[in-house]
Amino acid sequence: MMLRKGNTILFPIVLFCVFACSSFLTILYGIDAYQAMEQRADDNFAEMTPLAYLTNKVRSQDESGGVQVETIQGKSCLVLSAEGEEPYRTLIYLQNHKIYELLIPASRDVNFSEGTPIMDVSYLKMEQNQDKIIFTIKNKNTIIKQQVCLRSS
Q1: What is the full DSSP assignment across 56-124?
Q2: What digits encode the pLDDT tens for the residues 107-148?
Q3: Neighbours of 95 (CB within 10 A)
Q4: 89-114: per-residue pLDDT in tens?
Q5: For residue 123, which of 9, 30, 34, 52 sits 20 to 30 Å off, Cα-Cα?
Q6: Rounded to 5 degrees, what angle do the CA atoms 108, 81, 150 make?
Q7: What is the DSSP letter of 141?
Q8: Which residues contact 101 (CB under 8 A, 6 or more apart)?
Q9: Residues 137 and 144 sit within 8 Å (Cβ to Cβ)
Q10: DSSP of 33-53
């Protein structure tokens, strides 16, 4: 009689342990899957957001002579010019692994230390070929190029 009573207690305990272990392993698997998704989202953000930012800036100033890539004081800069009552220039450049933006009157000299940091980028190259601007961004081991065709050229 005692043997039978011991088996009835042992079976629910073993069943509970199996359930607890499988729940724990399922949670561990879920954590790993979530971390992988989060890493992919972060990588996608780091690669695509700077390109989207630069493309939108070009599109917003895409008028005749409004967008150029120039070298100013040894830095490659995307220069967005706007005419009006007081002409101004917006310079977008890479400094200290960050994209910076500087808005200044067109007649004023450039002081890159006055720029506003926008976002982190490990590498940025800007080139202009006639009516195209080519952005190259490097994130970790991935190099991404994007061409933006100027409509006003």
Answers
A1: HHHHHT-STT-EEEEEETTEEEEEEEE-SSS-EEEEEEEETTEEEEEEEETTSPP-GGGPEEEEE-SEE
A2: 889 999 999 999 988 899 999 988 899 999 987 778 889 999
A3: 14
A4: 999 999 998 999 999 998 889 999 99
A5: 34
A6: 155
A7: T
A8: 90, 91, 92, 115, 116, 118
A9: yes
A10: HHHHHHHHHHHHHHHHHHHHH
